[in-house]
Each structure stands twice: as C-alpha cells, then as structure tokens.
Amino acid sequence: MAFDLHAADVWSLLANWAEQTPEAPAFMHGETAISFAELHERALRTAQGLSDLGVGLGDRVALWLPNMPAYPILYFACTRLGAIAVAVNTRYRAVEVADIVGRSGAKVLACAPGFRSIDFLSILAEIEPAALDRLAAIVNVGDEPATPPPAIERLRRVPFDRLLSRPRLGTGHAAANVACNIFTTSGTTSTPKFVLHRQGAIASHAQQVARSFGFAAEGTLSLAILPLCGVFGFDQAMATLAAGKPSVLVESYEIEEIARLIERHHPSQMFGSDDMYARLLEMVPGERPFPSIKWAGYANFNASLEDIAERAEQRGLVLCGLYGMSEVQAFYAQQPPESAVARRKLGGGVPTSPLAHVRVRDPETGVLLGVGQAGELECAGPSLMVGYYGNDAATAATLTADGYVRTGDLAELDGQGGFTFLSRMGDVLRLSGFLVNPLEIETHIQKVPGIEGCQTIAVSSAAGVRAVAFVILKPGATLDEAAVIAHCRESLANYKVPLRVFAVDDFPKTPSPNGFKIQRTKLREMAEDLLLSS
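RESULT FIELD:
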C-alpha cells in the first residue's frame, strides 16, 4: 500500500488509513489490537457522545490518561468535532490539575479511575470545588469504585463505554486551520504555558516524520513508551499512524515491562531517555540484546550518562540524538542514523522538514551567528505552534515577526545543515563574561570517585558571579569539597571552577511528561542561602 502523504488535517490521517487498510492494526494494548477501521468507528461514536455532553468546535477536552486505547479514541473524536485536546500529565496532582482544567476552561475531563498506579478520583476530590465548576462532565475510562470520594459525588460522571454506544457523528469540523492540541510547558519556574497547535501542523509534521524516519518500511512497529500527554510520545504515535503502521501502547515505565514488551513485539522503532536505555542495557543480557530495533531516538537528560551512545553501540543498539519541544513539536530535528557515534550522540541534528530553518542569535547583541558560535536557537517551519493559548504577551515574546520561535535553547550551527543543542539558555552560566554550558562542569565533576550526579548553577558572590555545584553521592561515599575543587582547577579554566560544592540527597524536581526536570531556580536559591550562612 502506498504511503499517503496528503492528509491536510488530523482526522484525515485516520480516515485515509481506515479506508485503505481497514483491518491493519493501528494500536495494540495488552492482548488486544485495534484496527484502523475500529479506531475510526469508535472515534466517530465517541465524538457523538462528546457532542451530547456539549462539546463543539473550539471547546477543550482534558485528557488525563495513561497510554491506553481510550486516549487516541478520545483524541481523534476531538479532532472530528473541531475540539481541542488538552494534555494533562498523569504525574500531576490536585493543584496542577486544577490549574490546567481551570485555565483551559475544559468542558470535559477524561480520567481512568481503575488505573492501577494512580487514584485519579481521590486527587480530584482534593481540588477546590470552584476549580471544577465549568466541567460539564468527567468521563471515566474503566470501572469507578463502588464508593467514589464524597467530594466528587456532585460532579456528573459518564462511563467512557456510554460514549462508545452512541451513533456515529455526522458532520464534523476537522480542517487544517482548526486548533486541536494544547500541550503544557514544564513550568519549572512558573505555571505552565499552554502551547496551542492546529490540525494542519500536527498532520503535516506526522507525515513528514514518518517519511524522514522511514516508518513506511515493511515491518515497522513502534513501542509507545513515552506518555501520550507529552509531545515526544504523542508525535511518535502520530508519525507511526501517519505511516499506516501500528504502535504498542505502554502504560508502565517499569524497565522490566518495557524489556518484556520488546521481547514480545520486536519493535523496529523506540524512543526514550538516556536513563531508560542505560537501564535496559543493564537488565537485558547478550551481545546484541535488541536486534529488531533499526535505530533508537533518545534525549540526553542525565550528564552522568554522557557515554551511553558508545555503550549502546558496543551492543548493537544505534542511538540518535533528537531535538524538539512543545512549541515546534518533537522530532523537529534528528542526528542522521548513518553518522558516526560522535555526531549521533549530540542533541539537535538536521531539521526533519525541508521547509524548516534554524538560526542562532547572540542573546545580548541580537546579531545572527555563524557556524560553531553559541547563541539562542530560533526555529521556523510547518510544525510550529499557533501560540500560547490565553497568553498573548507570552506569544509575542516567543514568536518573531518573521515567523521563528525563540526556543530559549543554547545551540550552535554545525556546518552540516543542522545544529547542536548545548543546553537551556536559562541553564547557561555567564562566568567572567563567557557563556558556559553547565554540562561541561558537571561532566568533569562526575569523574570524581564517589559522585553520582551533579548540577551546577551561577550565583553572585563577593568574588563576582561564580559557579556553585550540587552533587549526589554514591552510597557510602563522603564529599571532599576541596578535592573536587582541586580536580576542577586542574583541567578547567579558572572562571569555570566552582566556588563551593554542596552534597544533597536529591535535586529539587518538577514533573514533566518525559520524567522529572531539575528546578535550577530552586538550586540557585539554595546556593544563595548556603553561601550566606557559611
């Protein structure tokens, strides 16, 4: 079957494959498989059920669900209606859920009361009643407990199966210019912003990723480990679907379960974090433990795993660095799988779309920079967001007049048609007038025996702006601060040597769809307090 690359909107992605290969599996979950025709039928029925609850063009439906079949069914139902699916991280709790549901003005919230890992209804019961007043209904996927929390008894609760029992929706509102997705930013220093995308951008990007990543090849099967509530996991599933190929929905992030599913399904594609691959390689024996995987995309979140690509290569697993963010979608760029590991391991890469373009700008002078010069990355292309929902000021600050997203990332052009991601601009240290990637210092400190993890921030001191490092020690180890500083002084420029090194049990974190992000602002506050008291 030819690979269709002409769907102008998200609903058409599904409708085209439901017509061309109706019996082919779209999603697999546990012991069940859902064909494209079944997904199409269930989405149409669910769309009518949502319409009965008052959901229409432009209304918001909050999806607070793990990776289960109800997620794509509800999502495609929203696209048929012209409604907007609001992704809610399953790690979020009462305060965060109340904020997202309230500020987005969601009309319906879908959750899974019977999900084994999260007590969704008890979390809802902790929310101030006024925050949920605008909800027309809560859609419960799976069985509700016999005695739900009293605090939510006043809320209308509708079983998901009841939506599936409705007749098929007739006329819909799917179109390229209709908004369809809200992703939330990580919100490490403030409340999350709502990144709004239209159907044309989601559909065209899914098709382009499918083409560029070779998803149309015979035997393609994706293991959807990353949460669908995050752009990384969502775009993987959508690109696989755009190629007419199946995804295995993975509810659990437990390494044992992931390893079991790899052994059972033999996926050709997989995406995840450096930590996930490190744990898989440690758990699964053999010289080539994952022979079915052509190549695997990864994001580098852990400085202590700087050599994970080399370690994976030694055991036949090809890891490729990627780049993306909610504002430009995941898989905006990719390091070529055929390139040497020294390049493949880097974040960034060559833009996926031939219509995309990147540039790097000096954050202080505004001058555009050349190859090898570090500055703020700006991205253009068809995968970009519409803006931040309900926040015109933030949209104006992020989108340039000529259509680029100011990413807030430090990067440099690589001279090979792409770029290398270095760090978040907010993480960059300006020391003695120089921009310094904290990873450089952190990687060096982690070479000291007994140190398991490191985070470095910059603080003002009597000696000027200096680096301060926080470290996590291995079990049984003790911190010799003077030795760590001496170790840095031996190999790093003086201005990069930390003023102080402090041991902590853990770094302050905030949840994101792909794990937890370090709260560097909180670390800076901790450093300032420690310096004052020492």
